[in-house]
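Sequence in, structure out. Go.
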Amino acid sequence: MTTPETASPAAFGDAQSIANDVSSGTRTAASVVANHLDRIATHDGEVHAFNVVTAERAMDAAESIDQRIAAGEDVGPLAGVPVAVKDNMCTRGVATTCSSKILEGWEPPYTATVVERLTNAGAIVVGKTNLDEFAMGSSTENSAFGPTHNPWDLDKVPGGSSGGSAAAVAAGFAPVSLGSDTGGSIRQPASLCGVVGVKPTYGAVSRYGLIAFGSSLDQIGPFTTTVADSATMFEVMGGHDPLDSTSANQPALAVSSKLDAGVDGLRVGIITEMAGDVIEGIDADVIARLRAAATALEAGGATVGEVSIPSSVYGLPAYYMVAPAEASSNLARFDGVRYGLRVDGANTALMNTASRTGGFGPEVKRRIMLGTYALSAGYRDAFYGKAQQIRTKIIEEFTAAYEHFDVLLSPASPSTAFALGDKAADPMAMYLNDVCTIPSNLSGQPSMSVPFGVGDDGMPIGVQILAPLMGDVVMFQVAAELERVANATNEAGA
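Output:
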């Protein structure tokens, strides 16, 4: 397949090659950043991956990196690497909007821990990326500032809600980016855009500075063009953060330690409900790539079998009780009083109503109302309480499955990228895009999408690798093997 000019992952090298070149003096950070900024200027008008490009700040940071290297300083494992940051992570002095009019132009007084850790490791932020408003969506069409387009086909969606971050990497605007994942918002767009996307174990990466959607579900993770780059990002971002009460009290997991170990002797389970006719709507070409991935792992020495997670079929309805309930609470702070959009009213109540009515888009309002209803007197036990029982059942079934398997496999998305506007008027059709990814958010366990070929339409397909709590290392180990097979297949095809 010949991809359009807008699709150019790692246009100027992956993160590891850039960092090595910049640290050794082969390239300057300033030249690397300038190249990426030029590409953004040329093509982002078509893609709309960014809400704001921080060109001047990025060039200043790059020149500072070059000066430090010239002075003999080790600036870190991401020296001079451009990074794009999803616009729901706080960046001091740079607007953080969540792609919502209610926060348009708001500049936080602090920076998210993950962003600080990346910049301390030498990375350079080149801009804030577009998303579905407050991370609520699966196509990045719900943004108050317009949709993002898939670099592989500008008439199709990049997935969501982190579509801007996925598209930025797929288009070569940055070799790495940050997304957040509440129900699949990293893995689904990674699959649709043909890049690597990681949702770490809940608590393995700090959420401090992430504007909350569903606090018990949200997790920050990277988009990259290679598994090794994702591992580097993970290790830089991870580890305990005293500013995040949900942060695991342990160092960052050494996920790069077994990238070359292969899969000989590992036990791999294919989730039955996501590999056949149990969960409807998963396309045949997606299942074919899943089966091909399993075959590749078996050829590498892994033992492959089937495993049933019966409650996974209830993950979608459970999620759409739990997540909106948490969102209705988290978004109550946007009231027009202290910051953000304020629409005047005759009294405080009318001002609050007018500000929230004018500031929130239709999908956000839909989820706030759904969540408020689910938590209301007389309905909490029947809806929210029942959803939490299903969540517990899903956790128990995954825990039981991992007694027999080291990792599990499923699709990352039920289909390849669909046309812009195709599902925008049908919320249920849109929600079904997360049917394969939601269970990992409910369980808190890690999962990631790795590109593994294309569908019948020539668009990318990602295979999802799932692992037990704090099993991120073995997850990356399997991901690296799938990447090796995919790269070898691509080279043979070329």
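Check: The mean pLDDT is 96. The longest strand covers residues 447-454.
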